[in-house]
Write the structure tokens for this entry.
Amino acid sequence: MTQNIERDIRFLKRYAVVTSTLLVVLSVAAFARATQKAKFEEIDVERINVVEPNGMYRMVISNRPRSIGPIYKGKPFGYAGGSRPGIIFFNDEGTENGGLTFAGQGQPGGEYRASTHMSFDQFNQDQVVNLDYSDSSGTRLMGFSINDRANVDIYDMVKERDSISKIIDPAARRAAQAQWGAPRNGVPLNAQRVFIGRDRAKAAIVNLRDPNGRPRLRMLVDSLGTPRIEFLDEAGKVVQTIGRN
């Protein structure tokens, strides 16, 4: 009897030592797997979210159906996702501040539409630096532009716009929309100041505008290869031209 008890005790001791050793080995292996980097030769994915330790978005790469809508300080606003395949960037507060989107598709009858758009946003506002390609069956615009925007928080603007859209009376709604889109403290909500590129009339062009977005100086080489410089008044009328006779 005593020998059986001693044998059982020795077995339990050996069992405890082996079990403890296995637990330590498994724990170390699991920790090593958790800390090492994964490496893939190829990966198929519909969306990748790059986030900060607090969970805020820093960058989202996605296809069209899984693309993200506008985000302001971590909160969705404006419109739903599903329309912007590409890459969307976010600032330190989790607010969208630019991105790269692209599209292209043939239409019935041989027509097509294609576009690529890269933009950088003003803080808590919309895009102010753009790089664009737009093509509608050969009618193309390609260029770089710089915009001015009023110092109005985009979240407040969209909230105000959405509230106006709920006004039932059409006349009152149109009046409120006109007031909403008017300059703030004399500054337009959006005014293009610079465009450098190739316009839809096939001219290579540099277009400079005043703070209200009105063209004032234009340098171009038109589709026939003729160069000229145009000075315009506030009404957009050409008042002086420098070019070949």
